[in-house]
Give the backbone structure.
Amino acid sequence: MTAAHPLLQRLHELALPMGDYAVFGSGPLLVRGLIDDVGDLDVLVRGPAWTAAATHGRIVRLDAYDVDVVAVDEGALTFGRSWGIGSFDVDELIDTADIIDGLPYVALRHVVAYKHIADRPKDRRHLDSLRAAGLLEP
């Protein structure tokens, strides 16, 4: 099961307050077995989860995306209060997250929207994986 992935285990160990964070980016695809691996884990946070994450890492400015994130384990996990690509309502993404193996993941419809906006080669591959799994129309 993908929940055994080291980055997901590490996130679980941080014991952030439930209801105030959700895994975004490629993590929701990983946990569902739609992709095999991720290089890092991107997590949206608010309020108490931001404060808790900050105790485990350091705040870093990502100028390219105009956001501050908490980088944990040298950026293997990043926690942000906003998303630098596209226009997403962080509260909605967190509030509508799917709980899988005890961790919250942004719903696939939002991940698909993000992957379309980012449109990098890896995003196109991820969308192809969703199509192959029958979760996205051809």
About this structure: The mean pLDDT is 94. Residues 2-132 form a domain with the Beta Polymerase; domain 2 fold (CATH 3.30.460.40). The chain has one domain: 2-132. The radius of gyration is 14 Å.
